[in-house]
Amino acid sequence: MMHSVKHIGKVFLVGAGPGDPELLTLKALRHLQAADVVIVDRLVSPVVLSDYIRPETLVIPVGKQCSSGASTPQADINELLVGYALQGKRVVRLKGGDVSIFSNILDELQTLVRHGIPYELVPGVTAALGAAAYAGIPLTARGYSTAVRFLTAYRNDLLDAGYWQELARTEDTLVFYMSSQPLDALVGQLVQYGIAEDRWVAVIEQATTPQQRVTAHPVREWLAAAQGHSFASPSLIVIGKVAALHTAFGWKADSGNGELYFPPVDSPADQLLKKKLVC
What is the pTM for the complete model shown? Predict the structure, then answer.
């Protein structure tokens, strides 16, 4: 007697790039156009969803926006990945930027492995590279910096004095993700620990999108020039000698007026729960 073998689908964890839909890779585009289900983060261009996906593809937003108190629980995202893959679906988990830089990919990978679901990782242009290029800031410009660090300061309480002292003294370019809210405190710490006069701060809001805007000042003048300023989400911070190069090589004119390019997350998980699988 023959028994049918249940077909398991596959999950593709795909980086969508920092905002400009034309920065999507060809491989990412191919997987999107073949997907049955796309489970998408907030920081993905609406153009990607409207123009690059088949009309019959199911698109499920699972955005996170902690500052607004509206975030899709990671457990719900994991459940969607597993549920649709076990139905034999081709699932794209679409993330803003690159899949491995400040992305909660580890939890999703562990979930897929635990359930025996095949997967692939498809890299994308991470926000640091997109933002720096569109702001005219070469991150490792010769004579300015030979190394780059990707950091976050959203948990300032986890960074001790020794760490701040080392950051203030380094010649490396510092790129901070998810750190615009504690920016004044961040700059204050670097100044307190003696950061050099020739270091600049550049904040790139909504990089590579039509709403991009760049604010740049010498780091020791930042608090006098821009303290308390509110930056649109997402914002990326570049600190170092290279940040000053924006004033000479910033080729993209600021067009941002404070409006959000990426739609905000309206509610935590109510909409998602309506779309949950019935197992």
Answer: 0.90
DSSP string spanning 225-251? HHTT---PSSEEEEEEGGGGGHHHH--
Per-residue pLDDT reduced to its tens digit, 189-224? 999 999 999 999 999 999 999 999 999 999 999 999
Q: Which pLDDT band, with edges at 50, 70 and 90, does 64 fall under?
A: confident
Residue with tokens 């000479």, as numbered in its chain: 248
- Active-site residue set: 41, 64
Name residues whose C-beta falls within 8 Å of residue 224's C-beta, 6 or more positions apart in sequence. none
User: Residue 215 belongs to what H/E stretch?
Assistant: strand 213-218
Burial class (CB in 10 A: 0-12, 13-18, 19+), 226: middle
Q: What is the mean pLDDT of residues 167-178?
A: 96
| Domains defined along the chain, listed by start | 10-125 (3.40.1010.10), 128-249 (3.30.950.10)
